[in-house]
Amino acid sequence: MKIVILGTNHAGIAAANTLLDHYEGNEIVMIDRNSNMSYLGCGTAIWVGRQIEKPDELFYANPAQFEAKGAKIMTETTVTAIDFDQKEVHATTKSGENVTQNYDKLVLATGSRPIIPDIPGKELDGIHFLKLFQEGQAVDQELAKDTVKRVAVIGAGYIGTEIAEAAKRRGKEVLLFDAAKTSLASYYDEEFAQVMDENLTNHGISCHFGECATAFKGVNGRISQLVTDKATYDVDLLINCIGFTANSALASDHLETFKNGAILVNEYQQTSDPDVYAVGDVATIYSNALQEKTYIALASNAVRTGIVAGHNIGGTTLSSPGVQGSNGISIFGLHLTSTGLSLQAATRAGLKVAFSDVEDLQKAWFLHEDNDKVKIRIVYEEDSRRIVGAQLASHSEIIAGNINMFSLAIQDHLTIDQLALLDLFFLPHFNSPYNYMTMAALSAK
Ligand SMILES: Cc1cc2nc3c(=O)[nH]c(=O)nc-3n(C[C@H](O)[C@H](O)[C@H](O)COP(=O)(O)OP(=O)(O)OC[C@H]3O[C@@H](n4cnc5c(N)ncnc54)[C@H](O)[C@@H]3O)c2cc1C
Ligand SMILES: NC(=O)c1ccc[n+]([C@@H]2O[C@H](COP(=O)([O-])OP(=O)(O)OC[C@H]3O[C@@H](n4cnc5c(N)ncnc54)[C@H](O)[C@@H]3O)[C@@H](O)[C@H]2O)c1
């Protein structure tokens, strides 16, 4: 069987590795327009903020590894069209040569691109996006310039908040904007996001929330001012981080799509064309919290969906268990993690939910060093008492592991009452006998 994989980043790599490592006798062709593969965008802010010196280790795979396993890999080759009737992929190489690859099964792993705000001045120099390694390099080079003193970041979601920290660590004056009332509003309720907002402000980032960019103005073709619905700011550099949109244009005329344009897939990652699979940021994903298909762009989902598609194409039926959109962020030592739905998000989705909040020390009360407070919220359905979300905030790194338990609870449809008496280990170095997770579940009304 000939399998063509379009896009060789996290989702395409996972599909290819699954097929190459577990199934024999297939011809695998991988095509990508980029010159590199496997770039971990999650490391961009860590590198740009000089928490690591170099970006070299942010790549975990290269074309030679796939060639060694028998795949044909075509980088710097842009797919221009797909003929789904003839089962052919048309592409153009770097040198301008047009090439065609036929397929028995096709994997769409073309990912996503940042959304471009449609406002005047968007074409000015000094306005950047952050997705590709090359875009990270461009921002890194800008931050090295002495002339770049004031940086505006539009969008205080994950990328915006992380790059705001990085620019601050590079000694810049940083202004962070979001249309929402707080940072991280898509992931956390106000009570949690405000902890982050305070942290950002305390570290010298100027937060402008509930404020929308309306125009970018320039001098000699380069950004010099940001105009919002509230004021005008002089800026030397602007970074847009207002979310991703699926790269589905190659297939959206032929395949069924979700309301945001992502390719609709079933639990086997199969699209409305049975010979075409879609994985990662280009595809929808099933949310166990919402109990319906949705769109969540995460590298963790890209890897899992690639594995699922690989096995199903290879011949092993494997159904995806769905996801919770579990995520985390760490800014100037403050960690926030969440899974499933916040109270706001659940209410917006029409769920009738309640919540339980607790605040306590991470470790036992008699340990006075490195024993930070933890803030926890569990969100659950009022009638069924099914857990649909959890949020944690602390300077303690231990919370990073805890959120995964809530992810499993949501996946397995556990109720808040089932969580209350769950056997959680106790050791003073890590927690208290009255664990805050237990206490949050026990105190649910
Ligand atoms: C700055 C940043 C930080 C992030 N941090 C995290 C994090 O901490 N945790 C997390 O889980 N997620 C994180 N993400 C999100 C994560 O990077 C994405 O969800 C992930 O990259 C999706 O992988 P993918 O393979 O589906 O798509 P992509 O990474 O978008 O890859 C798609 C590939 O398809 C190729 N392609 C597209 N169109 C064509 C075409 N026509 N022809 C040929 N090739 C094509 C592209 O060149 C690309 O290589 C972060 C993203 C960014 C940008
Ligand atoms: N730590 C992580 O897990 C991590 C890190 C980086 C990126 N990612 C993922 O990558 C994807 C893209 O990240 P992102 O930060 O671009 O998106 P995001 O969805 O996290 O945040 C986008 C932010 O932009 C704001 N916004 C939207 N339109 C706006 C406008 N016109 N003006 C001002 N603000 C506006 C939104 O309110 C939101 O807070 C997301 O799926 C994210 O989860 C994850």
From TrEMBL:
Catalytic activity field: 2 NADH + O2 + 2 H(+) = 2 NAD(+) + 2 H2O
Cofactor(s) the protein requires to work: FAD
Keyword Isomerase: no
Residue ranges occupied by any FAD/NAD(P)-binding domain in the UniProt entry: 1-306
Residue ranges of every copy of the Pyridine nucleotide-disulphide oxidoreductase dimerisation domain listed in the record: 333-431
Signal peptide span: none
Enzyme class: oxidoreductase
Regions annotated as coiled coil: none
Molecular-function GO terms, alphabetical: monooxygenase activity
Matching Pfam families: Pyr_redox_2, Pyr_redox_dim
EC numbers, comma separated: 1.6.3.4
Alphabetized UniProt keyword annotations: FAD, Flavoprotein, Monooxygenase, NAD, Oxidation, Oxidoreductase, Redox-active center
InterPro entries: FAD-bd_OxRdtase (IPR050260), FAD/NAD-bd_sf (IPR036188), FAD/NAD-binding_dom (IPR023753), FAD/NAD-linked_Rdtase_dimer_sf (IPR016156), NOXase (IPR058076), Pyr_nucl-diS_OxRdtase_dimer (IPR004099)
Alphabetical list of Gene3D superfamilies matching this protein: 3.30.390.30, FAD/NAD(P)-binding domain (3.50.50.60)
UniProt key word Flavoprotein: yes
Family (UniProt): Belongs to the class-III pyridine nucleotide-disulfide oxidoreductase family.
NCBIfam families: NOXase_Strep
Protein name: NADH oxidase
Species of the source: Lactococcus hircilactis
Organism classification: Bacteria, Bacillati, Bacillota, Bacilli, Lactobacillales
